[in-house]
Q: What sequence folds into this?
């Protein structure tokens, strides 16, 4: 199975999850009658908005690391996509637990953070291994 | 015409539009004397800020889908770039109508959303077609 | 030295800097007891938050331009990565000066903006040069 196709699927999953979070914000905006351009006004809206924003803040780290790892790491070609899948799962848990209780968002956040750290290490190892003469 | 060059141009256009939105926020900040780190304080600034933020929130969905579709979809190579161009046009309309009246932002937002959905479908079809043995 | 490896390293550096900014926001959240989902409450937290957000807002411009320039510009293959390094340095200065005094954030911001403009020009030149028949 080509590594890039696996990472392409993980990218689609991450994008779909983020898309779902954005739709939730729109729904909460309507439900609690929070008129644009306001971005605050009800606890439930605020939670949905922070879930989306925090994931948005994580995407420019996650996606570049996923693809750098996919392109440059050749020892275990499935590893970047596997770590990416763990990231997506962590973010799903983060979303559901944050909506239930902001204080419980830590576990999902931590799982995604560890997967991200794994991708960083794999990307760096891959770049070093691809270095001319290495 | 190579498909990747067309998508490269659309990426440049999307980035330029977003860049223009960011400059507008800076101008509104000066015009209405909203001192950093504040991000609110005048209706016109708030609208410009929300236009930029909402487009920022859309970019990590749009750009990965545009490039996944460009790389994996080979039936009509011009299609991803064409959908990308529609997205950019929808976002221009979104910006101008939001600045005029936040309640009228729906049409431009919808056009961009439909283009994005099209890119998602084209990307998935492309990945399935590239699957080994498919 | 292959140009893509240099840009891969610059991408890692940009991602690490952004990651560090995010951690700072989390630290300020704890230090000043600002409970999620709130994103305001103390001047020092607000500065750290704006530094991270402004860099987040810049990443979807910076990373696509860096990679478009890297892929399409072949005259001086080291140039995109060099401009990317200037961008990272400008953003480090932006962070340190913003935290010290928001009014002094201009120089670092300007350096990063000029590097970004350089990448835009290099990317466009590259795309034009790769155009079939050009």
A:
């Amino acid at each position: 199975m080509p590594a890039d196709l696996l990472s392409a699927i993980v990218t689609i999953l991450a994008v779909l999850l983020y898309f779902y979070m954005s739709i939730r914000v729109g729904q909460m905006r309507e439900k609690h009658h929070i008129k644009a351009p306001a971005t605050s006004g009800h606890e439930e809206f605020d939670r949905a908005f922070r879930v989306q924003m925090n994931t948005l803040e994580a995407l420019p780290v996650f996606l570049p690391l996923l693809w750098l790892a996919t392109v440059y790491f050749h020892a275990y070609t499935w590893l970047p996509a596997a770590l990416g899948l763990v990231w997506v799962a962590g973010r799903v848990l983060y979303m559901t637990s944050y909506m239930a209780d902001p204080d419980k968002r830590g576990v999902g956040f931590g799982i995604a953070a560890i997967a991200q750290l794994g991708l960083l290490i794999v990307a760096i190892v891959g770049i070093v291994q691809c270095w001319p003469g290495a």
